Amino acid sequence: MRISGSHALVTGGGTGVGRAIAETLAKAGATVTICGRRREPLDAAAAANPNIFVELADVTNEASVEQLYKRAEAARGPFSIVVANAGVAESAPAHKTTLAQWNRIIAINLTGAFLTVRPALAGMAKRGEGRIVFVASIAGLVGGAYIAPYVASKHGVVGLARSLAIELARTGVTSNAVCPGFVETEMLQQSVDNIVAKTGRSAEEARASLVAGNPQGRFIQPDEVADAVLWLCGDNARSVNGQAIALSGGMP
User: Which architecture, in CATH terms, is 7-181+221-241?
Assistant: First the structure.
């Protein structure tokens, strides 16, 4: 599938990994629609590249996502690439995790991913091409203490990617997930701040405890995730389907 000239949707595209993905796809010649709930970071991302366009949307709200599709596709054509990136992470011992916390994380990370891609599926299948990419996490492949809702949601995202891959295998549409370890983003800084607040450790100690999970001894960079997504969207990855690709420096 040609990336140049295609129309891509990237949820959570105003910051972090989502912004890096949007910029990378736009530089490759795609027209990119980014969405989120906060206009300021979205506008900042769009201002940096004329191929990036902004739509406000809440991925947990079915009507909001449907309206996003209606506006964006009317203006720029049907989506041939959909990157479900919007997500949230929180940490707490499982026995202290409230139902409200559980529901919020599942709603954004898993239900939001489903609502993001569902409107594109029939059209992609009919046209005989398309790329669905979920931004999951290494937590979608392994367990992790104090992040039970997050781990559950990302395992669900990987399962969703694999299910769609089988369902769409004969249509020319592929569905895959990328599973990074800790990425150097605003979300990582939130994790550092949380560790500092709860343990009294310094920020340097908190960062060292997180980076220790990567056998390469470093944090993943947003551009590394973006390049993996770009490859999955290209023609040379047309046989890559139903995969959960770890970007973790060797963590199983």
Answer: 3-Layer(aba) Sandwich (3.40)
